Amino acid sequence: MIMLNLTPQGRRLRILCRKRALLPLKKNSDCRNYNTMKLAAPSPALYIAVFLLITTVASIGASPPRLMRLPASSNKNYLTNEEHWFNQTLDHFSPYDHRQFRQRYYEYLDDFQTPNGPIFLKICGESACSGITNDYLAVLAKKFGAAVVSLEHRYYGKSTPFNSSTTENLRYLSSKQALFDLAAFRQYYQESLNLKLERSNIDNPWFVFGVSYSGALSAWFRLKFPHLTCGSLASSAVVEAVYNFTDFDKQIGESAGPECKSVLQEITRLVDQKLESNGKALKTLFSAAQLKNDGDFMYFLADAAVTAFQYGNPDKVCIPLIEAKKAGKDLVEAYATYVKEYYVKSLGVSVETYDQQHLKKTTLTGGSSDRLWWFQVCTEVAYFQVAPSNDSIRSSKVDTRYHLDLCKNVFGEGVFPDVNATNLYYGGKRIAGSKIIFTNGSQDPWRHASKQTSSPEMPSYIIKCHNCGHGTDMRGCPQSPLVPEGDAKNCSSPDAVNTVRKQIIEHIDLWLSQCQSSGACSM
């Protein structure tokens, strides 16, 4: 929070703003800057004889926002978690709004070959960014003598422009703004490095990395700012905004296999029946009585199964359920045990993250990421994981209407995802970029929103194995909990992972050398 040594005029403004707290922003622009911004551009009248004392913002944790992100790592799994800060522009698309906020980033220089080694920009996605994780990027940094820097996504974690997450305050939360954040940060960091090295007009070769949503940002950054990076790795990159994402559920069925799929479908039918006859008792069985909305409850149960396949632990869900079926045990009770012991207890998922009443809360707390990601879902990308009309695993209660009602209930009238505009802007799976590596795990349901076919300038690889899921190339197997340096030894086919990694190294090596030989390292 900014601390101000206010002039008398400033103190009068503070009192006036408190009185106006309930007025609409457009009628109270000065108060908007004072009350809601963590950091605002100075107003000459207000900041005469005023100095700023910058302090760190209170730490904000994150809970899984519908499984897009990888679960958080413990401190021991970070290459570094030392925080750094710089001032970021709030609205990159306005020539008049010069407000700024503080954005958090990290740097890891242990392997950096100064002064001309490459800089690897690891993009953080839709959760708090608490450091640079020790995944396969650590191996790549050693190999190429690279510095690693990582920027926290605007609004998430400690990089919060406003004191609350009202729908009005979230208007600057978008992938487009985030891409400009990355471009501004790249310029800032390069200039800072040049200053440290006492040089000027030099550009190190940059390469961008991301997984999942940040994988999409990695591809889009190369697409929109090709002069700022030599290439990008887009791991499990969800570059296609999808309105009704029925392929998501279909992939879960394929990844489960016939026997496990059949059991999961039977459990869904039984749960649907019990929900009608005694919903309160059913929700209590799953320790989810707080989920009053039946759609929220069924989404929670669907995600619990999805997680096992997405993050490379299919046997966690399939083996106990198949054994329960063969033993004639109560399948609903068996599934409840899995949900409570693995999904909630082991992975640390909070039932609250599925409660729309929780999502409506605008106070910044440890669960703020849930609301933030849903805002991006409800305005840009959708990814509505609806039940297919036939042969579905998840309940038919999780349909398009459920998602649209959620967007309206949580964020207000008129909020819905314009996926056509998003795909028109970025190209979707027909992205017209260059020097982008796309990778996906064969068992990952999100791969159907990624680019899975190769083109001359954009190779695409699918890593095929029993437990190859989300971000396998960077995280190894399983993808959660983190395997140090993304070791592939626990993948059912380590060779499949290592073969793709070899291709990744060859592309990075080639594109970095082309970048250097073309003179791209000089501004």
From TrEMBL:
Alphabetical keyword list: Glycoprotein, Hydrolase, Membrane, Protease, Signal, Transmembrane, Transmembrane helix
Example GO BP: proteolysis
Any one Gene Ontology molecular-function term assigned to this protein's record: serine-type exopeptidase activity
Pfam families recorded: Peptidase_S28
Transmembrane intervals: 45-63
InterPro entries: AB_hydrolase_fold, Peptidase_S28
Similarity remark: Belongs to the peptidase S28 family.
Protein name: Serine protease EDA2
